[in-house]
Structures are given as structure tokens and as C-alpha cells.
Amino acid sequence: MSTRTQQRPAYRCTECGWSTAKWVGRCGECQAWGTVGEAGGAPTRAPAPARPAVAAQPIGDVDVETARARPSGVGELDRVLGGGIVPGAVVLLAGEPGAGKSTLLLDVAARAAQSGPGSVLYVTGEESASQVRLRAERIGAMAPRLLLTAENDLATVLGHIEAADPSLVVVDSVQTIASAAVDGAAGGVSQVREVAAALIGAAKKRHVPVILVGHVTKDGSLAGPRVLEHLVDVVCQFDGDRHSRLRLLRATKNRYGPTDEVGCFDLSDTGITGLADPSGLFLSEDRTTPVPGTCASVSLEGRRPMPTEIQALVAASSLSNPRRTTSGVDGSRTSMTLAVLQARLGLDLGGRDVYVSTVGGARAVEPAVDLAVALSVASAAADRPLVRGVVAIGEVGLTGDVRATVGVQRRLSEAARLGFTTALVPRHGADQLKAVEGMRVHPVANVQEALLVALPHEV
């Protein structure tokens, strides 16, 4: 039987695998510089057809029970993954150093070992076994069926998986494991690709879920080849402000569930816990006494409404260029909102310093918090508090109009649950909103109308 001879592309990108017939300095797929190199000029032969080990079957006869998600014991993680961890799935968890990735996965491994059908294998390549045990004792993650090994060799890791036959494998991290069959140091492009492919093959063959920890680069992207993100089933990003206890878990890729869910965690000295209701971190403890310069809003993290309190301070300035300082909000959007207040409402901010911040280290960068920023600054400038129990939702345009935003109904329901009684929303689309018990909704067309409701007297 004759075979066809195919000529390989002359050059290939080591990051994403993109191929080209001639050398270029920049990859045409992932736009990386200096990653295109020779792929080898030896011709390859097309493989001859082989007899399949398992015959193809009708789609209705495929067993779906093996693909059912199983709860991990951590509710916020299950929320992001779409109900739990699917057997045979490979999850890549990326995040900055110190974000709490190892602490989270050690807690997940302990809970899975306590409630799961089998043992859990935790492979650490960055720390010694004694260091991991000290952390486990500190966060209360000691479980009899939690197996721990400190290993950096891929073949030995695969041997541990074969011998232990675990129900879950955690590898911390994929950049620290190396294969003796591949040249280069651990963490290199070839090594990461080989290690990931071997672990993915073991996961699919044994129907055991594998969670890989991945490092990130300076710009926050996942370190290693881009093909790694295509090989795994789920890619999660674990991040948070270093000075805040809040940590957010997002899925940027998920073959088994949605990618618009967000998990909230509280990281402390005693461990990490899921936050089903994180509103207490972002709102002042005492909301019974109105204070000038404060206004609440509700932002959306994926499909999850997150209440946020905006605080503003307006003070006389001795500088020729008054300060405009922000923390937790978009500085550019805040500057535009201040310009609207000056140009459209005649608010005098020219010789005054303006400080705008969020409570609890929250990040409220979406346009829907513009109206809350405008009201808090106007309240601070007038030195009068807004009406009690008010929440503002809406984007502010350069003409001073309040523009429509998405998810207003979910935001109102969350605000009503937290005890807010008055809501300012964009007029456009307000007629389609359903009534919320205990909430008076005021549709407004511009910032001036919003001020007339929130500040009864003219600013």
C-alpha cells in the first residue's frame, strides 16, 4: 500500500504552534516576538489507517454518567466550574504569586479526601512535604486519605498516580515538573507542553480529574505556551488585591459550564473560606446614619451582583493643579464624570481636591457605577448626605444623560435584599423592570434629575 509524503512547514511558533513557510520575527497568530524557529525539514509520512479499539456508537448510546460533575466540597469553586469537577477533566488554575492558589487547592484536596470515594494525591514541586503539612495544619486541611508527595520528575509523578489510583490529583505547579525525555529546564515551552500532555493523557485514560497550578507573567497572562490553554478543559483565574482579603475566581474557559460566574473567597491567616454573600466587605458597617460623600451602587462580576459603596471627599486645594485621586474606580471615567458635573451642573471643582474611593478594596470599574460616583462627589461638595437607603445604577454620558446598563433587575433585587429602599436607574428600559418589594425605583434621564431625588435641595 502506497503512502503519501508530506513536507512539514519550515518554521513553527513555539508558543502557539502556528506554522509558516518562511521565517518571520513575529508570530502571525499569537503576536509574540522571537518565537518562530525551524520546525525541521525531514519529511513525514501519513500514518496508515489502524483498526479502532472501540467501534463508533450512536450518540444516544453514549454513557453520560461518567461526565457528571461531582461537588468538590467548596461551594464557590463549584459555582465557577458549573456544579463541580467532572471526572477526567483537567483544570488549570492561574494567578499571581501570593494570591492563595496553593491554599485554595490544599483546602479543596482535603475536602475531597474527606467526602470523596477515594484518596486524593497532592503533588508539590515548589515546596517540601513538611512545608505543605504545616500549611495544612494551619488551615485545618488534615485528612487521612490526603496523600502528599514532593516531586519534580514527570515519570515519578505518573508512577504515583498509577500506584495510588486517586480520585483527584493536584499538581502545584505545572512549571516545576520536568520530563527527562525532553531537553530544557523545567518551565520551558517544550517542558510545559510535554508535562501537560502527559498529565492530560493520564487524566483521560483513568477518568481522574487533575488540577494544575499555573504561573503568570508580569502582564498577568498565563506563563508558558498558549497551546496549554487549548489543551486543558477549564482555565480559571484566581486574583485579588494583595492588601485585601477578598479573592475572586473566574473561569476564562470552561467546556463543562458557564464562563460568566465568579467565586468569592476570604483569605486570612487561618485559611480560605468561600463567601456566598460578600456584601459585608464592600459596604460600611453603619448605614443608619447618612454621611456626606457616600453613595452605594451594584456592579456585576459576571452574572453575580456585587454591592459597592463609593466614597468621595472634596477639599480646598493649595495647589495650582488640584489633585484627582482614585482608588478602586476607573480614574479616566471618574475624570469624565467630574467634567460633566462642572460643565453641565455648574459644580465648582476647579480649585478643590477630589478623592474617590471604594470600601473594602473593591474594584468597581464598570460604567454602571458612574452615577454613584457623580452623586457621591456632589454630596461631598455640598457637605450634605444623600437620602437614606439610596442606591444609584447607571452610566453617565458626556452630555449629562444617564444611559442604560445591563442587568438592572438583578442589581435591584440584590440592593433590596441588603435593605436599600430607594433606587435611581436609567429611564431607558425602566418600563420593563419588575416591581421589587420594599424598593422605590426612580427612573432618571440625566444627572440633574438624579440629584433632585437624592439631594432634595439644589446643589
Q: What do these coordinates show?
A:
The chain is of the alpha/beta class. The chain folds into 3 domains: 1-43; 68-276, Rossmann fold (3-Layer(aba) Sandwich); 281-454, Ribosomal Protein S5, domain 2. The protein is built from 11 helices and 23 strands. Strand 17, helix 8 (331-345) and strand 18 form a beta-alpha-beta unit.
In a nutshell, what does this entry contain?
The chain is an alpha/beta fold and 459 residues long. The protein has helices spanning 75-81, 101-115, 129-139, 154-164, 189-206, 227-231, 279-282, 331-345, 370-382, 408-417, 447-454; strands at residues 5-6, 11-13, 19-20, 36-38, 44-45, 90-95, 120-124, 146-150, 168-172, 210-214, 234-239, 246-254, 262-268, 271-274, 294-301, 304-316, 324-327, 352-358, 390-392, 395-396, 402-403, 422-426, 440-444.
Termini Cα gap = 89 Å
CATH-scheme architecture of the largest domain:
3-Layer(aba) Sandwich
> How many strands in all?
23
Which segments are poorly predicted (pLDDT under 50) over 5 or more consecutive residues?
1-5
What portion of the residues fall into strands of 2 or more residues?
A: 15-25%
